[in-house]
Amino acid sequence: MILRIKKLNPAAKIPARSTGGSAGLDLCALLEQSLTLPAGGRALVPTGLAVGLPSAETVGLIFARSGLAVKRGLALSNGVGVIDSDYTGELQIGLVNLSDEAYTIQPGERIAQLVVMPVLLPALEEVETLEETGRGSGGFGSTGRL
């Protein structure tokens, strides 16, 4: 399986795994100068990269870097970014600063991670009823706290 990566800007950094066991490829900010996100602030940060996913049965998922999220409050503004198999435009990372302090993103800083995963593409069938289950339509909190 091959993930094709295109630099849209010569200064862009090709993503890499930090360790041999890393699932995600680190994505870096393509900035000419540092960018300060105030507490509660949001920004769309370019990477200067585009990708060609291996097939229509794969999806690229962009996740927050856990260290930035837990230690600094820097998370993805949309929770998880979804890269469809037919999208070949620039990967841009929507970030939000959930902390009560400003955070400054440095040029070239690792700001998110990309994971490529298989995706199921089932045929759709409209039905009048669904099979009964023990949970049924019980939603949020319906299975108890512990």
Computed CA radius of gyration, to the nearest angstrom = 19 Å
Strand order of the largest sheet: 2-11-6-8
Count every beta strand, where a strand is a DSSP E run of 2 or more residues.
11
> Judging from the principal axes of the Cα atoms, what is the shape?
globular
**Beta content:** 25-35%
- Helix run count: 1
> Biggest sheet: strands, sense, closure?
4 strands, antiparallel
Give the oligomeric state of the chains in this entry, treating copies of one chain as homo and distinct chains as hetero: single chain
Structural class, from secondary structure content? mainly beta
Instruction: Give the helix proportion (percent range).
Output: under 10%
Distance between the termini: 40 Å
- Give the overall pLDDT as a whole number: 93
Query: What's the order of the H and E elements?
Result: EEEEEEHEEEEE
Q: Which regions contain 5 or more consecutive residues with pLDDT less than 50?
A: none
Describe the structure.
- The chain is mainly β.
- The protein has one helix and eleven strands.
- It has one helix spanning 66-72, and strands spanning 4-7, 25-28, 35-37, 42-46, 49-52, 58-64, 74-76, 81-83, 92-97, 103-105, 110-118.
- A four-stranded antiparallel sheet has the order 2-11-6-8. A three-stranded antiparallel sheet has the order 4-9-7. A two-stranded antiparallel sheet has the order 1-5.
- The protein is globular.
- The N and C termini lie far apart (40 Å).
- The model has no long low-confidence stretch (mean pLDDT 93).
